[in-house]
Amino acid sequence: MFLHLGGSSGKVGMLLIRRVGLFCRSAHLSPQSLEYRPIKKVMVANRGEIAIRVFRACTELGIRTVAVYSEQDTGQMHRQKADEAYLIGRGLSPVAAYLHIPDIIKVAKENSVDAIHPGYGFLSERADFAQACADAGVRFIGPSPEVVRKMGDKVEARALAIKAGVPVVPGTDAPISSLQEAEDFAKTYDFPIIFKAAYGGGGRGMRVVRDYEELEENYQRAYSEALAAFGNGALFVEKFIEKPRHIEVQILGDKYGNVIHLYERDCSIQRRHQKVVEIAPAAQLDPHLRDRLTSDSVNLAKQVGYENAGTVEFLVDKHGKHYFIEVNSLTNYTMTFSKCRSLPELGLEQDKIQINGCAIQCRVTTEDPSRGFQPDTGRIEVFRSGEGMGIRLDSASAFQGAIISPHYDSLLVKVIASGKDLPTAATKMHRALTEFRVRGVKTNIPFLQNVLSNSQFLYATVDTQFIDENQKLFNLKPTQNRAQKLLHYLGHVMVNGPVTPIPVKAKSSSVDPVVPSVSLGEPPMGFREVLLKEGPEGFARAIRQHQGLLLMDTTFRDAHQSLLATRVRTHDLKKIAPFVSHNFNNLFSLENWGGATFDVAMRFLWECPWKRLQELRALIPNVPFQMLLRGANAVGYTNYPDNAVFKFCEVAKENGMDIFRVFDSLNYIPNMLLGMEAAGTAGGVVEAAISYTGDVSDPMRQKYSLEYYLKLANELVKAGTHILAIKDMAGLLKPEASRLLIGALRDRFPDVPIHVHTHDTAGAGVAAMLACAHAGADIVDVAVDSMAGMTSQPSMGAIVACTKGTKLDTGVSLDRVFDYSEYWEVARGLYAPFDCTATMKSGNADVYENEIPGGQYTNLHFQAHSMGLGNKFKEVKKAYVEANKLLGDLIKVTPSSKIVGDLAQFMVQNSLSRAEVEERADELSFPLSVVEFLQGHIGIPHGGFPEPFRSKVLKSLPRIEGRPGASLPPMDFEALESDLRMAHGDEITPEDVMSAAMYPKVFQEFKEFTSKFGPVDCLNTRLFLDGPKIADEFQVELERGKTLHIKALALGDLNKSGQREVFFELNGQLRSVLVKDTAAMKVTVHSLQWPCLSLLEVKVKPGQKVEKGQPLCVLSAMKMETVVNSPISGIISKVHVNADSSLEGDDLILEITE
């Protein structure tokens, strides 16, 4: 109805009615004996937005206002808006408080209240309340008690409608008193039928029943709802009209028998019989039907002597036949008059009220449409409304800091939009809803926006099944809520410290790196143009024909994996990326993906690895990208079905990857061939990499001889590799060995490009790479100077300088290398908590003895430090040598290097020698990685498995024969995507599916984290790691053209819930977030003891009987997992920890009694 909605056709009525005053009658007296007196004080026996609307009207008229509130509504706005406010219903339930007539009347009398407005719901349709007001000498703003009784009792209202000649839906003549009466009605009129509350509306106490099986349950539910909502569970039954339109006509009546209507509104868009969207006038309503609806409404009102405002409700079936439902005698329109004046005297005559334009009302509620409109509760952290021309807002609880409780209606604000027609009004409404920002609780705004955009809503007619039949309305676009989520993250770091594990106590540098200047325009052409034009084969030919030495820059991946624990963030890579594109276009490739970077991005940096690839590709379009692919393991540490590896390569290529360096940690040819085929099928350049160990220049070391490598290379070239690589992951290639190996490969394969990768742990990396180049290598790996050396790659500047002016000249500018290095020298300071130099001050030539790969060398340092073994690193390195021998002298690169490292640390922790391990192999609880290796999970090592060590460890455990992934069933990507959409919504991408396929648990945790904390990759690294200090001001660029200005203001004290309130200024406005203080919640765990960091799984319970050797739990330190077996047979007497517990060395885990 226009008057209700604030639409155009109600403008005349609205202006007049709201300004004229109060029309109140002493309800218990007859019209002839009414005494009219000025009203000075009005109470509203209600809450929320209707109370505030009445207060506003009274304030305009100079009338003092009184609010009542329940104990749960202490903080609600209606209590604060009124001039006076009084508690009612102390000790009662939240709803019962507003239904407690004696308390309300007592407050009115004690505070000289002249009149009570009932609002809607609660007591508004209770005749006994209207009568109680009259008996107390307080005016009831509404119809007389008799009219309230007649119209509020739907059964009697129905009888009156029949008497007035208004069509009604077949139904019971009186409230039913038993289930049997409902069954009898169903037998007479057949299903479907509907239960309705006899003493209230708003959808509560309503249940549709379609067969006998549903009858009893729906009867009970309807009765229970009606009793809770209205204090009376009486129900009546009607025939249910299928798919009707719900049309309501607004009426006004005076005491002289004058009745007018304010035309109709369409309330058909409803959920569970509650109106969601209302439209006035009803769209595409037949004029003759409109006349019948309005005349029937007026006639019915005259029949009962209706006074004041009211609503007559109808259902209209698909044939245009209308049925009376009920009259709402509630007075929620703030229509009150000061003197005994008639409607004509007030200028309210039917012929003066015209339809002009259209209005729409939407109820914005704190409900989650994606979960069946489940009400959401909590604290509103941010509230910003949509306003502007043609928009009206009615609200009460919509403000920052408001607590949304579960006790009352979920209404947040009513938004009314008006325009010349329905599409215009809908556009205004959509714009206003888009402007809303509500954070802290979920709302139905995305659902309402879908309704407003629906073509049926805009250009056809809708019925009460509109929502049920339009499931696309639930394809909700999620709100990003980025700013508030980032404040939550910053607050969390300020209160609890870094979210990523920090291995050493060091703070990020306070100096920001300066990006060298970059020329405008497109970057110069690079080798990627050759690849795109000529394809992988032509690209390989171009590389082979190139004069001079080519470089692959590892700064974007392996360099920081080796030096900074793989922690470099996309934020810092993106800054320098344009400079690289413009100044290093003649690089062979840029290694920036794969290996450990994939899972670390999600696991510790909380950013998407695919997004990194996409963003870098956009910034560096001219240099080929290269990744590390672990053969059949893709970028994981386990085996995957073949189709998963193929799909991964396909998606990687689509996202901008060019060159796939395919290797296997054991040089196991079947695993390598699968990875090569997957990369080649995807259209990538296949670079088959032979992992190097041993020393081909030492004739005494024959297991990994020159002939071994030549034989492997021959198989890979025959398999069709585009480029042949030597992957020297530990930096074992000495200059002489380089000359022998590369020279032999060049002689054997004159047309195949050769690419060499090494680490500079021993300090001989530059010399070895120069030897490789002179022996015929086409490409060598380097890192920019400030990210080179030690466990990283050889220095780019050194190689460039040493070859300058020779036939191997790289063509790279030394000046640009210096600029590039300067950036990373400062940027590296941001990662001080992860820098290997915190525990390791130099490289070490002992790598020629222990053969520890560069990246692992750094990780072992951190692991030893974190586990209290920092002063025993020398022992760890010695144990690494012994562990390698125990396992048969393996090729050591992820994941085989991790297996050797796990066993080495196990030996150090337990003070075990190689001989002791061999002797006690059948009783020790070995790291899980060691057990799985011996089972054959990563393939078959060169020379086979070590015996009898293998048999003693495995005992009866199963063995895997042949390629591990060959026996795995194909991965069902459609099912996986479906599961992910169910869990995370429809925004799931093919890249997300692949992340979940590679790392299911890590991806799940990543999505949960970003859902809570937002795009933390937008933060600079110092903020990401350490958070801001109080009074720090900074900017965060969410996307191009959208920048947040933030200032950290204060950190609150600990509250009773263990939270601290953190205050910020965001874009000039105060914001705050509540953060759990985890330090205040810690419990110290003070027999079986084990030095470790976290507990993954507890496999036993107190009271359980266990046998010697039975698995008890699984422990984890960094990436090392260990199954702890029972050292004795006995009974578990006590378990001191739970899964995911964080542990320190010597924490008690559980107790066993023999």
Automatic annotation (TrEMBL):
Residue numbers of N6-biotinyllysine PTMs: K1119
Cofactor(s) this protein cannot do without: biotin
Pfam families (alphabetical): Biotin_carb_C (PF02785), Biotin_carb_N (PF00289), Biotin_lipoyl (PF00364), CPSase_L_D2 (PF02786), HMGL-like (PF00682), PYC_OADA (PF02436)
Domain of life: Eukaryota
Cross-referenced PROSITE patterns: ATP_GRASP, BC, BIOTIN, BIOTINYL_LIPOYL, PYR_CT
Coiled-coil residue spans: none
Binding site for ATP: K154, E238, H273
Record's function text: Catalyzes a 2-step reaction, involving the ATP-dependent carboxylation of the covalently attached biotin in the first step and the transfer of the carboxyl group to pyruvate in the second.
NCBIfam families: PRK09282.1 (NF006761), PRK12999.1 (NF009554), pyruv_carbox (TIGR01235)
Name of the featured protein: Pyruvate carboxylase
Source species: Cyprinus carpio
Gene: LOC109112177
